[in-house]
Amino acid sequence: LEKASGLADELGYDDFLAVEGRNAALLIQYGASKGVGGNRFVHTLEKIRRRRDIQRRRAITKVSVGSSVATKPDIEARALGETRALVDSRLISDAEWRSNRAKEMFFYLLCCGAGQTKEQITAALWPDLSPAKASSNFHINLYRARRAIFPGIFMLEQGQYKLNPDVDIWFDVAEFENLLSRAESLPHGSKKVATLEQAIELYRGPFLGEFYSEWTEMRRHQLEDKYLKVLSLLANFNADRRRYDKAIALLEKFIAIDH
Fold it and tell me: I want to staple 47 with a disulfide (CB 3.0 to 4.6 A). Which of 18, 25, 101, 103 is the partner?
């Protein structure tokens, strides 16, 4: 378990633990109970359970289309650090995206939550192009994103594009902010600290670091500010309890960003 956790640290992701761990649930539970790799195996258990729940729901909600059966995929999206999207645990390659704008469009709609008109999307992704050229780019990249992820990933309702709400998507940004909100509602103590520690483990780098649109820059700064505040809070918490090594490690992460 320690070797697997170390390998995940080296690779910068641990999705493979959930995939392989489905057949070794007792071993993963043991790692979680012993705190191997910090909270890594606790999160791995949560991923395994979430994927099992999704598979059960998918089995129930299969839709027959003629003689074929269409199912909605399990999607995992990561924007904190390396920008990645996985469909049923398979990484979508750059070749499948066909262009960075197709990938950015997917993450833009994922971050917006509410529907966006074509004009809002083109203003965010192609602010300097003429309406005709921006419209052409929009349709090309919408098609590419659908091909890369899943044909039914986007919906058009009342002139607004949005992600299909029936598709299960795990998004690290949403999980990061959910954990911060949960921590705010908790009293000061070990539960609050554990929740904040889970949140900072999700922050593996700047939000959508490969994109430089105005909307990504704004969101990047917002999330970075939240991360820095949590690092500072946890560093003070550990320093007050004379856990100086841990406090120093947290402050080093703070300094590496706030330079």
Answer: 18
